[in-house]
């Protein structure tokens, strides 16, 4: 079964392996298969579920809500997000304005079939809306009982500090950040993680398997496997491109004996690795088939020894991205439409 960790400086516990439905529900897999994977997650002890209004342009929330229907609400932790364009994608259907935040939370609650979400997240930083406006709207949503806690996604260390200060002034809790993090993508370690530790903010990390590259299924110099994420434009193929270099894929192959020595599969090694960081409360995993979850959940509770961690670093060498400046290149400088 899956272990639990506290989320930030709060009393909220979340399953350290959290089910995310970014590129699966209403996109990569049909609704029936989606329901089966959600039920497999529940059977494995996963109680935390992450989605966003922009996933499949709101349809992913509907699928997740239907899949969780009939479950005891108090036994679940449901997270969603707002920022990216949704619906008709008009001029106010995007960003973190008060108007869009309120319309987004109301729509998300309806689609998810719940009265509240446990965590409501700003999907990116909005450079075009005053931060005070955004956090006042978040605070009002918390006071109305529509969200219990506030989180963000892919914010820089400086943005986290500003947001945390405003949240404190308004009497609400900013407890999480959701960045990309994996053995191959470590850009948060220099600035974001130290700031978060100081502020009492945890990371809920996405793509701990680097879009599936850390499974080892992509071989240097070989064609991409048919039906894989790298060949499917509806499954985030553009996000995987930066990892599809022969030198990087060759380095990933060197992880196979490391995983074998540790008695783990490659996906288990990748997920266990991110969970070794004490500032990480949860690793987001998706699945198109229930059996994928049966493998990945076994990473929960695993402690990698110092020799294994050293062997991972030696295998990957210089292909790892540790450049903290890349945390400043995630949020769009102008709103998307």
Kindly list the characteristics that best describe this protein.
337 residues, alpha/beta, TIM Barrel, eight-stranded parallel beta barrel, two-stranded antiparallel ribbon, 12 helices, Aldo/keto reductase, oxidoreductase activity
What is the CATH top level name?
A: Alpha Beta
What's the CATH architecture name?
Alpha-Beta Barrel
Segments where pLDDT lies below 50 for 5+ residues?
A: none
Number of helices: 12
Q: What is the global morphology?
A: globular
Secondary-structure-derived class: alpha/beta
Question: How would you portray this structure in words?
Answer:
- This protein is α/β, with parallel strands linked by helices.
- The protein has one domain (4-329): TIM Barrel (Alpha-Beta Barrel).
- Helices cover 36% and strands 13% of the residues.
- The chain contains twelve helices and ten strands.
- The protein has helices spanning 31-43, 59-68, 98-112, 131-143, 157-170, 192-199, 237-240, 246-253, 256-262, 266-275, 290-296, 306-316, and strands at 4-6, 13-15, 17-20, 48-50, 77-82, 117-122, 147-152, 174-177, 202-205, 280-285.
- The strands form two sheets. Strands 3-4-5-6-7-8-9-10 form an eight-stranded parallel beta barrel, surrounded by five helices.
- Helix 1 (31-43) packs parallel to helix 11 and helix 4 packs across helix 5 (157-170).
């Amino acid at each position: 079964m899956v272990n639990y960790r506290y989320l930030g400086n709060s009393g909220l516990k979340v399953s350290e392996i959290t089910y995310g439905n970014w590129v699966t529900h209403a996109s990569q897999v049909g609704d029936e298969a989606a329901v089966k994977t959600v039920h497999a997650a529940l059977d494995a002890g996963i109680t935390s579920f992450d989605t966003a209004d922009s996933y499949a342009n709101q349809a992913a929330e509907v699928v997740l809500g239907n899949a969780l229907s009939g479950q005891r609400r108090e036994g679940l932790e449901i997270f969603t997000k707002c920022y990216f364009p949704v619906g008709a994608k008009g001029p106010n259907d995007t960003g973190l304005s008060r108007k869009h935040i309120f319309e987004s939370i109301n729509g998300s609650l309806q689609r998810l079939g719940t009265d509240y979400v446990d965590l409501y997240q700003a999907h990116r930083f909005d450079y075009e809306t005053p931060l005070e406006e955004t956090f006042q709207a978040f605070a009002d949503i918390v006071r109305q009982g529509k969200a219990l806690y506030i989180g963000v996604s892919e914010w820089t260390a400086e943005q986290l500090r500003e947001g945390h200060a405003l949240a404190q002034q308004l009497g609400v809790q900013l407890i999480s950040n959701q960045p990309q993090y994996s053995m191959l993508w470590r850009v948060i370690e220099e600035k974001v993680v130290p700031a978060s530790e100081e502020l009492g903010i945890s990371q809920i990390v996405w793509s701990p398997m680097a879009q599936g590259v850390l499974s080892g299924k992509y071989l240097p110099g070989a064609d991409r496997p048919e039906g894989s994420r790298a060949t499917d434009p509806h499954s985030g193929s553009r996000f995987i491109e930066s990892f599809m270099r022969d030198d990087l894929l060759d380095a990933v192959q060197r992880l196979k004996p490391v995983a074998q020595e540790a008695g783990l599969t490659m996906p288990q090694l990748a997920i266990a690795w991110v969970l070794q960081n004490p500032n990480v409360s949860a690793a987001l995993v998706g699945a198109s088939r229930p059996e994928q979850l049966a493998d990945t959940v076994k990473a929960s509770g695993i402690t990698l020894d110092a020799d294994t961690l050293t062997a991972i670093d030696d295998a990957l060498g210089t292909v790892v991205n540790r450049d903290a400046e890349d945390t400043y290149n995630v949020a769009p400088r102008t709103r998307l439409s």
